[in-house]
């Protein structure tokens, strides 16, 4: 209830209404001098009100991560993701947006200045993983590397994977939760299951 009241007050501010009017006229808009969760709040409100995607440019990667968290907190149903065109999940995330779909894409200036990647038509190839897969952890890691997944110490975002001994944790954009693959089967959220299956997108 408190969040709805904050959003209602925010949306009725004259400055916010003026900004949305300019955005509604298809103008590019630069807003400076706002801090904290305000840019994310404004971007989410603009996307929802105008029913179209909004690009939120953050000054640093830390600010971009915070903005992503803020937008997701404000509206769990709205598509919201980082601008990472070289990531394996970016193409499928981008397909969620359209000219009349509310969503927020968060990018840093450095990310926007990177060369655009070449999208390979074979990028839709998948890898099925289940308890019957004759797939070793080394084979899975090789496939993840070839598919553009990023190796990290701890898996927290789609497109990441981590290896500890014979255990591989990976987070596919086609899954809501990370997947754990080990010699005895696979599991989600630490709950082991012999009947687990998943489809990893390249």
Q: If you had to describe this structure to a student in words, what would you say it looks like?
A:
The longest helix has 14 residues, at 61-74. Helix 2 packs across helix 3 (38-50) and helix 3 crosses helix 4 (61-74). With 202 residues, this protein is α/β, with parallel strands linked by helices. It is 33% helix and 23% strand. The strands form three sheets. It has a six-stranded mixed sheet with strand order 5-6-7-8-9-10, covered by helices on one side. A three-stranded parallel sheet has the order 1-3-2. It contains seven helices and eleven strands. The chain has two domains: 2-112, no CATH class; 124-201, Penicillin-binding protein 1b domain (Penicillin-binding protein 1b fold). Mean pLDDT is 75; it is low at 185-199. The chain has helices at residues 2-11, 14-24, 38-50, 61-74, 90-94, 109-112, 137-146; strands at residues 53-58, 80-82, 103-108, 126-130, 150-151, 160-164, 167-170, 179-182, 185-188, 191-193, 197-201.
Overall strand count = 11
Query: Given the C-alpha coordinates, what overall shape results?
Result: elongated
Tally of individual helices: 7
Task: Estimate nothing, just give the exact number of structural domains.
Answer: 2
pLDDT below 50 for ≥5 consecutive residues: which ranges?
185-199
Strand line-up across the major sheet: 5-6-7-8-9-10
> How would a textbook summarize the main sheet?
6 strands, mixed
The percent range for strand residues is 15-25%
Fraction of residues in helix? 25-40%
Q: Could you tell me the radius of gyration in angstroms?
A: 20 Å
Give the SSE order as H and E letters.
HHHEHEHEHEHEEEEEEE
């Amino acid at each position: 209830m408190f969040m709805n009241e904050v959003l209602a007050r925010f949306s009725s501010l004259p400055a916010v209404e003026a900004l949305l009017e300019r955005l509604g006229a298809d103008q590019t808009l630069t807003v400076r001098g706002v801090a904290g969760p305000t840019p994310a709040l404004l971007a989410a409100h603009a996307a929802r009100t105008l029913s179209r995607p909004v690009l939120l440019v953050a000054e640093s990667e830390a600010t971009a991560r915070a903005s992503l968290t803020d937008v997701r907190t404000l509206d769990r149903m709205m598509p919201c993701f980082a601008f990472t065109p070289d990531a394996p999940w970016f193409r499928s995330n981008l397909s969620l947006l359209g000219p009349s779909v509310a969503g927020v894409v968060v990018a840093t200036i450095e990310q926007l200045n990177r060369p655009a990647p070449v999208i390979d038509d074979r990028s839709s190839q998948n890898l099925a993983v289940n308890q019957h897969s004759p797939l070793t952890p080394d084979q899975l890691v090789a496939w993840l590397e070839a598919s553009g997944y990023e190796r990290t110490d701890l898996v927290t975002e789609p497109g990441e994977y981590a290896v500890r001994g014979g255990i591989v944790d990976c987070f596919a954009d086609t899954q809501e939760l990370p997947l754990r693959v080990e010699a005895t089967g696979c599991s989600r959220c630490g709950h082991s299951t012999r009947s687990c299956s998943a489809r990893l997108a390249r």
